[in-house]
């Protein structure tokens, strides 16, 4: 099989999850265009710290502004969605090139953060909080 120009247009997919959010992320070689739910990253994310968190996998692998990213994210809040997007980006980068895996693993970006909200139990005010005890 011969390499053609279409191999440069190849997209790599990664699924990311965090809390109750899930993200589907596609990356392809490009100039650094970042779309989240068909909106530019600046429209979707307001805080600079969040933008840095999302760009961390690219900074660690030294390939910032080399990929176009298209992400679709659902569920949860903003923090969970950002974590899901990062997890999806990392998985897509590893599919693109396996040599980046040790670097991403060193910064513990490859593992899914499995912490989720504990459910509320019956007979209690919340997950752990109890109703006030009344002696009389």
Features:
136 residues; alpha+beta; Ribosomal Protein S5, domain 2; 5-stranded mixed beta sheet; 4 helices; elongated; disordered N terminus
Describe the protein.
This protein is 31% helix and 22% strand. The protein has 136 residues and is of the alpha+beta class. It has a single domain, classed as Ribosomal Protein S5, domain 2 (2-Layer Sandwich). A hairpin with a 2-residue loop joins β1 and β2. α2 packs parallel to α3.
What's this model, at a glance?
The chain is of the alpha+beta class and 136 residues long. The protein contains four helices and five strands, in the order ββββααβαα.
As a percent range, the share of strand residues is 15-25%
Based on helices, strands and strand pairing, what is the structural class?
A: alpha+beta
Q: Alpha-carbon distance between the termini? A: 83 Å
Q: Helix-strand pattern, N to C?
A: EEEEHHEHH
CATH class: Alpha Beta
Structure annotation, total helices:
4
What shape does the CA trace take? elongated
Residues in helices, as a percent range? 25-40%
User: In order across it, which strands form the biggest sheet?
Assistant: 1-2-5-3-4
User: From the structure provided, what is the oligomeric state, counting identical versus distinct chains?
Assistant: single chain
CATH architecture: 2-Layer Sandwich
Largest sheet: 5 strands, mixed
Average pLDDT rating: 90
Radius of gyration: 19 Å
Uncertain stretches of 5 or more adjacent residues: 1-5
Please indicate the count of domains: 1
Number of strands: 5
Query: What do we call the CATH topology?
Result: Ribosomal Protein S5, domain 2
